[in-house]
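Sequence in, structure out.
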Amino acid sequence: MKWVIRLFFRTLRRIIGPFMLLGEKLTTPKGIQRAPEEQQRVDADTKGMTLYQYKTCPFCIKVRRQTRRLSLNIETRDTQHDAYSQKELLKYGGQLQVPCLKIENRGSKTIWLYESDKIVHYLHQQFSPEHGEAVRH
């Protein structure tokens, strides 16, 4: 019975996935414009961040939209198609759940932040112009 359910959802993702990606592309927000020096600071702060995600996961799309909205250069890893990233996420993050934002702080331990709402909130708090300059880690 499990294989029937898996087959159903795999088929559903293959049918709906391209439409979700098209919707993401058509509705991608414009990134905020920062002064070049400030964008360099933000880029330095996001250098230690990696987003583990699936391309067609709606929660991952939500996080990617936020990264574009805030003009953040965060590395992404597709754990659905990259076995190494999937193993890394499970081994160090503790769960095979996406989205997950890996935050490597300078001089302290790595944080694995799960749940799209928490990730979006974190990115907004750290990098939104309404909150002033990006908070340094």
